[in-house]
């Protein structure tokens, strides 16, 4: 019996890296944001391997123990940053697509596509090296949860387009998102130097606008 338990323990998958906790108080939020900002600065300036927990803590101006209070290791820090980038994108959709209800629906769809493609000046930084490390911090369940959250936000945004009538079916909205999200991620893999086809976001925006317009005609 003891041997069986030991075998099960050895065969059990290691838990995926994750931050210790989410910041709740303003001071904690400031600290974690400063850590993420330092992480990205080092990642971009010196390369991914240089973005260690110690170098990030020093760059952010904190003791290493402060960083370890939130992130037990570099993988957990990367996991936290990727989640932060996704949450920041959802917040952008709230602010720039859902909130400006008076704007015509084509303009709001254009903003939705740009935000999802990550090409705005205030988009969270995310590059091909970060994408290639996703399997170290996420399994299929985590990927599914992230895409479900983005799908729900897209459907929420489209539902606020009162001048788009009738409203498209959820399956159509999900299909458009799959095209946009898949295009963003795959172009990073084939064009790591960000040498994308000229106006690729514009073409995807046109695709979405034409498809949605066809459903309302």
UniProtKB/TrEMBL annotation:
<feature type="region of interest" description="Disordered">
    <location>
        <begin position="1"/>
        <end position="24"/>
    </location>
</feature>
<dbReference type="InterPro" id="IPR001647">
    <property type="entry name" value="HTH_TetR"/>
</dbReference>
<dbReference type="GO" id="GO:0003700">
    <property type="term" value="F:DNA-binding transcription factor activity"/>
</dbReference>
<feature type="DNA-binding region" description="H-T-H motif">
    <location>
        <begin position="52"/>
        <end position="71"/>
    </location>
</feature>
<dbReference type="GO" id="GO:0000976">
    <property type="term" value="F:transcription cis-regulatory region binding"/>
</dbReference>
<dbReference type="InterPro" id="IPR009057">
    <property type="entry name" value="Homeodomain-like_sf"/>
</dbReference>
<dbReference type="Pfam" id="PF00440">
    <property type="entry name" value="TetR_N"/>
</dbReference>
<dbReference type="InterPro" id="IPR050109">
    <property type="entry name" value="HTH-type_TetR-like_transc_reg"/>
</dbReference>
<protein>
    <submittedName>
        <fullName>DNA-binding transcriptional regulator, AcrR family</fullName>
    </submittedName>
</protein>
<feature type="domain" description="HTH tetR-type">
    <location>
        <begin position="29"/>
        <end position="89"/>
    </location>
</feature>
<keyword id="KW-0238">DNA-binding</keyword>
